[in-house]
Target: DUF4181 domain-containing protein
Amino acid sequence: MFVIIEKVKKEFFSYNHINELHRKIDKCLRIFSAITLILLSCVLLFYYEDLIYLVLIALIVFMVLDYMVRAFFEWKYTQYPKQSILTLTEMFLILIAIIIVIEFKLLGSY
Model:
């Protein structure tokens, strides 16, 4: 008993918004995350250099939030609601890859 999920063609490096509400929420989220990451990195770089890894954690949190919003809109507002399963799976695979890189120190010491 397998579930077949229809593959939806997406453009590479495009936003692929589900509807107008998704476009607005995604735009606000991207602006908020950009401002937050810039301010956080400046503050940490000049005042708390030993806590610079918090920028990476904030980046991961915003990435997860972006994927969750996309999955919600795919689940609620498209004709292919099972596409949200693929989106969440992609998010978890990226998180696992990030954790492996950090845990095994593949980018060097930090």
Observations:
- Residues 20-103 form one domain.
- The CA atoms of residues 36 and 58 lie 9 Å apart.
- DSSP finds three helices and no strands in the chain.
